[in-house]
Amino acid sequence: MRPLLGTIAVLCACSGPPGRPQVAPAEPARAPPDADVRDPDTALNLGFEQVADDLPAGWQSNGATGYVWRAVGDRVHGGARSLRVEAPAGEAFGMMSASFDAARARGQRVRLHGWIATERVTGSARILVRVDDKAFDNMGDRAITGTAPWTEATVEIDVPADGERIVIGTALAGAGTAWFDDLRVEVTAGPPPPHPIAIGGVVVDARGAAAPGVEVALVGQARIDQHVTTDAAGRFRLATRSGSWGLSATPPAGVATFLDARPYEADTADVKLALGTDGGVTVRGRVTAAAPTGTFLSISMPSEHTGDVFAVPLAADGTFSVRLPRADEYVVEGLGDAIAKRTFPRAGDRVDIVLPMWLAGPPPASVVDWIAAHAIPLASSDPASAPADLVPLRAVVGKARIVALGEATHGTREFFQLKHRLVRYLVSELAFRVFALEANQVECRAIDAYVARGVGDARSALAGLDVWTWDTEEMLALIEWLRQWNAGHPDRLVRFVGFDAQSTAAAYANVQRYRAKVGDAGEPAAIDLLGRRDAGDALARLGPDERDRLTAALRALAGRFDAGRPGWVAATSAAEYDEARHDVTLLEQATALHLAPEPYELRDRAMADNLGWILDHQPRGTRIIAWAANGHVASTLDTFTNMGSHLRARFRRDYLAVGFLFGEGSFRALDLARRRGVQEIEVPAPPESHASVAFSRTGKPLLLLDLRALPRRGSARDWFAAPHPVRDFGGAFVDDRAQSEPVILLTQYDAVVYVDRTTPAHPMR
Predict the structure, then answer these.
(1) Which CATH number fits domain 8-188: 2.60.40.10, 3.30.450.20, 2.60.120.260, 3.20.20.70?
(2) Where are the beta strands (DSSP E) in 175-318?
(3) Are the beta carbons of 192 and 240 closer than 8 angstroms?
(4) Sheet containing 235-241, strands listed edge to edge, beginning at the edge strand earlier in sequence
(5) At a CB cut-off of 8 Å and minimum separation 6, what does 494 contact?
(6) 3-state secondary structure 78-142
(7) Fewer beta carbons within 10 Å, N or C terminal of the chain?
C-alpha cells in the first residue's frame, strides 16, 4: 500500500522487463541557467573536478557491493573529469551522494540538472534530490537505460518550511556503466501555476504515412487522463493544462507506441508519434459485462516508463485485440464507467484475457433507502458529546476481542475525533482494556507510562513517536482522556501500546540494557548500526555481505535469548525478559523491512504478529482497540496479504474491521504530487460512481453501518458486493483519481463509518 517513510528505498530504481523498447531522448542543447540560480554550497563539487583517492571530494557512496565509482577523464561532458560507475552484474543499486543545509532553500524549489551517458545499462541511471524524508524526486520513469549519449536530466522538489538537509545524488540500478557530469543546483521561487495548453500532432505508421483511426492517450501519473482518435490525416489535438505528460498511440492495426512524460509549458505543442516496427505482443480477450459503445480499457506494463499506458476500445460484443510493446505482464483496467483491474502474464507472443468487469453509475435509490433505514446516525464527532447515539454499537461489536478502526486519511480531524468517541464508549461500556496504535511499539511505551501511571509528560511522549500523523491535538486529547480514565478507574486500567516496527534505535537500546543486566557477553558489533537514528538509511547502504552478517547476528542474538531464558528470567523477571525478547523480534522485523525491495507485506505481517503478541501477554479475555489505516485493518486486499487478512485468519469472528470513508473536504497529507512535504489537501464532491455517494444521499452526515446486516439477496447486497471507487489516501496524496480505487466494501469491512465532509487534523507544531 503505502511506502515506508524515512527510508532511502524510495530512491531505488528497479530495471524494467527484458526486451522492452528503450526510450532514449535525443541530446538537447545545454539549457540556459534560470534568472535566480544560486549554488547553495560551492563545496559540492558538482563537476567532479576535485578528486581524492580517485573519488570526487565531498561525495560518499552507499557501499553497495559490485558498484565501482571513479572520477575519470575517459568520457566527459565538460571540464576534465566526470563521475563513472561500473557494475558488471547486479540487481541492486549503487549511489553516490552529497548534501547541504536546507535552510537557504526552505519554502522554495530546488532543481538539480545533470548530464548522464550510459553503456549497456540493464536497469537505469539517474540523478536524484531529496529533503529529509519529506520530499524526493529520483527521475521516476524518466531514468536513462540501455546505451545513450550525453543526455540532460532534471529532478526537482519543493522544500518544506521545516526541511533540514537536502541530499543530491547519482545512482545506477542493475548492471552496466554510467557517467555523470556538470551537475547544477538551482533554487527558484517555484513553478508557475498550471495554465491551459494544447498538445497536438500526428501519428505515422512504420513507413511514415499518416495513420488515421489511432487512439492517442494523454498519460499523467501513470494513468490515462483523456484520449482522442486521429483524423483522416493522422492528426490529433488534446486540450489540457501545463505539466508533465506522456503520450501513447494505439492503432487498430500495427504495434502501439508511446512517449515518456516530459514537461509541457508552452501554450501549444506539436508532437509526432511513430507506430512500432517490431512484431509486438497480441493482447486480446473479452469482458464479462455488456458494455455500451465507446467503452475503453486501459492496458499498461509494469515498467520504469511513464507513457506506456494505452487506450484500447471494446467491440460491440465485448471483445478487444491490440498489439503492444513486449513485456512480461500486462495490467488491464477499465476506463470511465468500466470498473475492472487484473494483471495477466504473457505466454509467448500472446496474452489471452477474460476480464471481470462492472459498469459504474449512481447508486440505485433502493440502496440509498436501505442504508438510510439501517445506518446508525451519529449525533456529533465531538468526543465529549453524550454517548446515547452510540448505544447500538454494543450490538455491532458483539463479542469481538479486536475492534480495528481504520481511516481513509491519516490527517482528518473528524476521523480522529469520531474514533476518540468510539474509544471512550468501548472502554467505559464494553470493557476494552488495550488501545493499540499504528506506531512503533517501543516508542509508545513512554505514552503508556503516562497513561497508566502518570509518569512523564503527554506532549513529550507523543512527540517522541516522531511521526507527523499522530503529533496532533486530537491524539493528545485522546491520550489525556485515557490518563483521566485510568486515574479514576485504577481497577479498569487501559494500556496504550504500539504495534508497528519501522525504527530500531529505541529497541536496540532496550535490548543492550537488558543484555548488560543479565551479563550477556555476546559479540554485538554487527548490530550496532541499529542503534543509530538514521539506521534506515544506513541499512539501505549495506552491501549483500553486510546484510547477511547483520541478519545472521540478529538470529544469533535471538538464539542466545532463547537459550538463556531460564537464567535470565530468574535474574530479572518473566515480564522484563519477555519484553526484551520481543524487542529482538522488533529489530528483526524493522531490519527486514528496510532491506526488502517491497516491504509492504512484511510490515503488515509484522504488525499482525505484534498485535497477537500483545494479546498473548494480557490477561485472558482482554479486548483491544487497534487504530490504523483502512488498508491495514481491511479483512482482505487484492494487492497483498495485509494485517487485517492475518488477523481475520487467526481471530475469525473475534476480529471486527471498521472502515472510515468520507465524501469530500480537506485533510493533511504528504503532498507527493508537488513534493511539498505535509500540506492541507482538499478534494471536491466525488463522481456519482463513488461509494460515498450512496451514503451522502441518505442525508446523514455522520453514520455507522453494520454491513453484516445486509440481506442475503437483493439490490442492496448486490451493490455492496460489487466494486465501487473509494477515496483512500493514507498519509500521502498523489492524485485523487489514482487513489480512488474500486473496493468491494462487503469483503473488506464488517462495518463502515461515514463522514460527509472533513477538515484537517490540527498539528501540535
Answers:
(1) 2.60.120.260
(2) 176-188, 196-204, 215-220, 223-229, 235-241, 243-250, 257-264, 268-274, 281-287, 296-300, 309-313
(3) no
(4) 235-241, 196-204, 268-274
(5) 427, 432, 433, 434, 435, 451, 452, 482, 485, 486
(6) CCCCEEEEEECCCCCEEEEEEEEECHHHCCCEEEEEEEEEEEEEEEEEEEEEEECCCEEECCHHH
(7) C
Contact call for residues 433 and 494 (beta carbons, < 8 A) = yes
* 402: β partners: 624, 655
Cell of 576: 522484563
**412 grid coordinates:** 482528518
For 79-133, how does the pLDDT look when each residue is reduced to its tens digit (9 = 90+)? 999 999 998 876 567 899 998 888 888 888 899 999 999 999 988 899 999 988 6
Which grid cell sits at 394? 454494543
Lowest mean pLDDT among 193-207, 339-353, 537-551: 537-551
User: Would you place residue 39 in the very low, low, confident or very high pLDDT band (cuts 50, 70, 90)?
Assistant: very low
Confidence bin at 157 (pLDDT 50/70/90): confident
- What does the block give as the cell for 127? 540523478
CATH for 196-359 (2.60.40.10, 3.65.10.10, 2.40.50.140, 3.30.460.10): 2.60.40.10
CA distance 362 to 691: 9
List all residues 6 or more positions away from 426 whose beta carbon is below 8 Å from its beta carbon.
Answer: 393, 397, 403, 432, 623, 625
SS3 of 181, please?
Answer: strand
For cell 512517449, what's the residue?
Answer: 259
Predicted confidence at residue 189, as pLDDT, reads: 78
> Quick one: pLDDT at residue 675?
65
Confidence of residue 62 (pLDDT cuts 50, 70, 90): confident
Asked if 235 contacts 201 with a C-beta cutoff of 8 angstroms, the reply is yes
Determine the Cα–Cα distance for residues 576 and 588; give it in Å rounded to an integer. 19
The pLDDT value given to residue 425: 98
C-beta atoms surrounding 74 within 10 Å: 9
Q: For residue 248, what are the β-bridge partners?
A: 217, 258
Tens of pLDDT, residue by residue over 618-634, are 999 999 999 999 999 99
Contacts of 484 (CB under 8 A, 6+ apart): none
Q: What is the pLDDT of residue 543?
A: 79
Provide the pLDDT for residue 174: 85
Q: How far apart are CA 520 and CA 523, in angstroms?
A: 9
CATH assignment, 394-501+608-758? 3.40.1660.10
Among 627, 623, 647, residue whose Cα is nearest residue 637: 647
Tell me the whole-structure pTM to 2 decimals: 0.74
